[in-house]
């Protein structure tokens, strides 16, 4: 079952994010009046229906009593760029293919690279990347870190560290998480202290009961904001690019979304959205190249 909601609050947050990037002498961004895409490219005239999992912060969830998150902000920015009103449709990961095929949604957020083929969809562009990472207590500057300027700096991109860098440390992870299985494969499950929730692992780190927490980078960075002395340490493996998917046959919308994401990357909107939710964690290098998560095309 798909839950649908208009996102005035998200649109307002997007406006705040965009305006925050404007200097004193810069004019506010011009609002698009004429939609750049119309039916049948989108199902409803003037509306962009974006499917997403609303139970996965910081991508999408409840923050301050309203739906909010990275996916909502990026979808709102895309709708703005295309001259459309955003409508959020709650879609569980298992429903993505059906929602795109039956026209319930025009786009789906947070689709990992390569998974679009499995879903029978097209990945129009990448707006962020995520993967197993580690966090420590105390000031620690990850390789490639930079000030939270809201822009991606390719020269400051973070690349994975060797797991051997953590050997000898007491490591914790959420039971059953991607990071837990990664550590189990690399160093053995018996070497990992397990916790029911990721927050419990961070609380143990804060109390000094463990020395390192392994977690998905963005989820971990979002939780770490609640702890004064816990910092992102680095990636444990290559990050996975995450993007926006459209129905396989909707080539016109594919081009429109791809172009809009290029604009949002170039004007710093994607960087500002990222820093809003995960703070000063630097951008990640993807594919072992000089590209960063905000500049890679699928």
Plain-language structure description:
The protein contains 9 helices and 13 strands. With 298 residues, the chain is α/β, with parallel strands linked by helices. It has 2 domains: 3-129 and 240-278, D-Maltodextrin-Binding Protein, domain 2; 132-235, D-Maltodextrin-Binding Protein, domain 2 (3-Layer(aba) Sandwich). The strands form 3 sheets. Strands 1-5-2-6-13-7 form a 6-stranded mixed sheet. A hairpin with a 2-residue loop joins strand 3 and strand 4. Helix 2 (70-82) packs across helix 8 (251-266) and helix 2 runs antiparallel to helix 9 (269-278). The protein starts with a strand and ends in a 20-residue tail after the last helix.
Give the distance, in angstroms, between the N- and C-terminal Cα atoms: 30 Å
Helical content (DSSP H or I, runs of 4+)? 25-40%
Order of helices and strands: EHEEEHEHEHEEEHEHEHEEHH
> What is the structural class?
alpha/beta
Give a quick account of the main beta sheet: strands, pairing sense, barrel closure: 6 strands, mixed
Shape: elongated
Oligomeric state of this protein: single chain
Taking strands numbered 1, 2, ... along the chain, how are they ordered across the largest sheet? Answer: 1-5-2-6-13-7
* Structural domains: how many: 2
Rg, nearest Å: 19 Å
């Amino acid at each position: 079952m798909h839950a649908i909601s208009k996102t005035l609050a998200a649109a307002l947050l997007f406006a705040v994010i965009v305006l925050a990037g404007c200097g004193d002498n810069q004019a506010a961004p011009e609002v698009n009046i004429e939609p750049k895409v119309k039916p049948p490219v989108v199902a409803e005239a003037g509306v962009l229906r974006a499917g997403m999992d609303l139970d996965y912060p910081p991508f999408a969830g409840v923050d301050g009593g309203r739906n909010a998150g990275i996916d909502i902000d990026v979808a709102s920015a895309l709708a703005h760029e295309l001259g459309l009103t955003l409508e959020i449709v709650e879609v569980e990961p298992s429903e993505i293919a059906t929602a795109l095929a039956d026209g319930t949604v025009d786009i789906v957020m947070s689709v990992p690279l390569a998974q679009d083929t499995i879903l029978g969809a097209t990945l129009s562009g990448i707006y962020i990347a995520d993967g197993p990472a580690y966090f420590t207590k105390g000031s620690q500057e990850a390789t490639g870190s930079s000030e939270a300027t809201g822009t991606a700096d390719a020269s400051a991109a973070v690349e994975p560290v060797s797991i051997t860098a953590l050997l000898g440390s007491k490591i914790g992870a959420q039971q059953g998480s991607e990071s837990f299985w990664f550590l189990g494969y690399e160093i053995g499950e018996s070497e990992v202290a397990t916790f029911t929730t990721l927050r419990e692992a961070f609380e143990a780190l804060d109390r000094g009961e463990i020395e390192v927490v392994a977690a998905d980078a963005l989820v971990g960075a979002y939780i770490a904001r609640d702890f004064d002395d816990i910092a992102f340490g680095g990636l444990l493996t290559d990050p996975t690019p995450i993007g926006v998917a459209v129905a396989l046959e909707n080539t016109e919308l594919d081009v429109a979304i791809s172009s809009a994401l290029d604009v949002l990357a170039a004007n710093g909107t994607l960087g500002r959205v990222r820093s809003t939710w995960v703070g000063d964690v630097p951008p990640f290098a993807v594919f072992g190249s000089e590209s960063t998560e905000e500049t890679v095309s699928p």
